[in-house]
Design brief:
Helix content is 6%, strand content 59%. By secondary structure, the chain is mainly β.
Length: 373
């Protein structure tokens, strides 16, 4: 049960890996490739830059950028069909009876008229020591994502009720499991361009959480959890980043913690996570702190070739929380519904609907066909 909970709950994330083609497997050396190609139709809608990119934090001058509810944050998106593909490979070579060398790369490739045509997702190399754990070096999700992953079950949307920065480069990550216990630690070295463009769907992008021209001096994260034999899993995590502006004297740090739980039984899956984040910044005029909090709920039911999904994401932020008139403002408030049908293990169709509760935002809708190899 422990090994299958997330594989059942997150078909969108594991579909490609499950269909990986083994190109070479001999004398302790394995090499495989995987990927997917898909086309989405997105209906006409308005979108909010502020609501979808999670931008809260200091600008070039150290002043807050988050201004929810302003008309400037909204833009029209015409109905269109968008194509995209993903390609990855992984390799493993046995060094002895315990240790192996491992490597992985994965890229997202968008269609001609889409933004961010060629994005690296995972690029790392390292060692797998079986019972001694795994250590990798490169670009991938930080340890903090382990707490968020159980609610990230939708093909298209979801997983926005948090302040996670997305995949990061320059990392050292150690992970291990013992019985039902699991743990992960990650440390990120200096990153001169801390703002990442992180894909949250097929060629739909969002900024990281703290504005423009920010350098991450270093960062670290930790996550721990326990999966019970009867289908219940518990998780907790913490992340920290030391930040400074590359165009001013502003500096600060970002902290986030999260608690989560998930449960699977008889084709049903339920997950939830609660998180809080603090963004502090010092300027020539003094120190300020922005606060944020949010939660995510997700559920799915799988029967034969059908998977039915439902979710809810909520996030709010408070600018200059140490000021007398500071108050929380909604950033994300959305309900998600989805249906997926697997024609085979390689070909599936899905539709997902996002119901917006933020003023001036339209509901969003997509239909997609996806082929995995």
């Amino acid at each position: 049960m422990k090994k299958t909970i997330l594989a059942i709950a997150i078909p969108a994330l594991f579909a490609s890996a499950a269909n990986a083609a083994v190109v070479y497997d001999k004398d302790g050396v394995t090499f495989d490739i995987y990927g997917r190609v898909q086309a989405n139709y997105y209906a006409d809608h308005n979108q909010s830059v502020g609501a979808t990119d999670g931008s809260w934090g200091f600008s070039d001058t150290g002043t807050p950028e988050f201004t929810p509810g302003t008309a400037a944050h909204y833009s029209d998106v015409d109905g269109e069909i968008v194509g995209s593909s993903r390609l990855g490979w992984s390799g493993k070579v046995a060094l002895n009876n315990t240790w192996s060398g491992i490597a992985k790369t994965e890229w997202q490739v968008a269609s001609e008229n889409s933004d961010n045509k060629f994005n690296s997702r995972h690029i790392y190399v390292g060692f797998d020591g079986t019972q001694y754990g795994k250590i990798i070096f490169g670009q991938t999700d930080t340890a903090f994502y382990d707490v968020l992953e159980p609610t990230d079950i939708f093909n298209e949307w979801g997983d926005v009720g948090n302040f996670y920065d997305g995949r990061q480069e320059g990392q050292v990550i150690y992970s291990n499991t013992y019985g039902g216990f699991k743990g992960k630690l990650s440390y990120q070295t200096n990153d001169d361009v801390a703002v990442k463009v992180t894909d949250i769907g097929q060629s739909i992008t969002e900024k990281a959480v703290y504005g423009k021209n920010v350098k991450r001096n270093y960062g670290y994260a930790a996550a721990a959890g326990y999966d019970f034999d009867f289908g219940l899993g518990l998780n907790a995590g913490y992340a920290y980043s030391d930040l400074e502006s590359t165009t001013s004297t502003a500096s600060g740090d970002k902290k986030e913690w999260a608690l989560g739980a998930h449960y699977a039984i008889n084709g049903f899956y339920f997950a939830g996570v609660y998180t809080q984040g603090d963004l502090s910044y010092d300027t020539t005029t003094g120190g300020d702190k922005d606060k944020g909090r949010g939660y995510e709920l997700a559920a799915s039911y799988n029967v034969d070739a059908w998977t039915f999904l439902a979710g809810y994401n909520f996030k709010e932020g408070k600018i200059n929380s140490n000021s007398a008139n500071a108050s929380y403002e909604d950033i994300v408030d959305e309900t998600l519904l989805g249906v997926q049908y697997n024609f085979t293990s390689k070909l599936k169709a899905y539709t997902e609907y996002k119901i917006q509760s933020i003023d001036n935002l339209d509901d969003e809708f997509t239909v997609a066909l996806q082929y995995n190899f």
